[in-house]
Amino acid sequence: MVSKRVLAVVVAGCIPFALSACTKAPADGGERVANAAVQPPKPYADTGVINLCSAFTNPPRIYQHDGERVGAEFELGTALAGELGLKINWTQYESSGLLSGLIGKRCDMLIDEFADRAERRDKVWWLPSSYAVTQVVVPKGNPKQIHSFEDMPGKKVGVPDGTLAQDMVVAWNKKIVAEGKAQIDVVTLPNTRDMFQQVAAKNLDAAVGTDSSAAYYGALANGGIESGGAGCTSGTTDDDRVGFLIRKEEPELFKAMEKAMANLRSNGRYQSIFEKHGLGSVTLDKFGDGKPPLCAPGVKL
Length: 301
Fold this sequence. Notes:
Blueprint (H helix, E strand, L loop, with lengths): L18 H4 E2 L7 E2 L8 H6 L1 E6 L2 E2 L3 E4 L2 E3 L1 H12 L3 E6 L5 H6 L5 E6 L9 E8 L2 E6 L16 E5 L3 H15 L6 E5 L2 H9 L5 E5 H10 L4 E3 L13 E7 L3 H16 L2 H8 L7 H4 L14
Parallel strand pairs: 3-7, 3-8, 11-12, 11-13
Antiparallel strand pairs: 1-2, 4-5, 5-6, 8-15, 9-15, 10-13, 10-14
Helix pairs in contact: 3-8, 3-9
């Protein structure tokens, strides 16, 4: 069952015009940020500030609601900076401008759902943050007992037009029909919002979307929809995780953020952040070193 959104609380850190009150000199003569669980690289310790950037258009991961910046990844980015004892300067960019903002040094880390792409590994470090998971969503109570793609033959299933979810369900439908199973009644909707509204109204037996959209619209539906079962992946990439990006010439910042992420995972805060936003099933800790199961085994997209 997806949970309601909870507004993030920004973790305050040191402020640059009061640095002397926020830092102390360690034995090596550099500046050390007070209350930092992980020591930041010297340039960040000197200013006490890190520039984080996002498009803020991906509910419930990171977005704006009633003028407030909220979401699981917003809270996670805030918590990571807090581990380094740093204050955050948040900046919003169009999705298409995020990478140039990072390379151009206007951003120190990008907070959004980024896959680990080979073509940019020479430019950025990739910090895994969660899995990108597909979710089967059903009306409250799951009256048709649809928990996975395996349960869809003979059922009425909605998909958003032009999405990976649509491609998967259509390909799966062809496969099961060829195997002699009942055909899925695939209903294509213009957008995710309309699709989940149809699920809540019980005009669809199930729908397929992303974990993020399921959590967000599930909260808006006030209990009218729920997850049919565990999340699954398309199998279209070798690694179904997504993460944050840091400039390649900043290995010390990357190492510090790796340590910060490990701290948040070990103390339970990381999992708690995602659970508050209905994303507890897609965390790194949920799957450990494994991966979510394939949505449509045997289907090639």
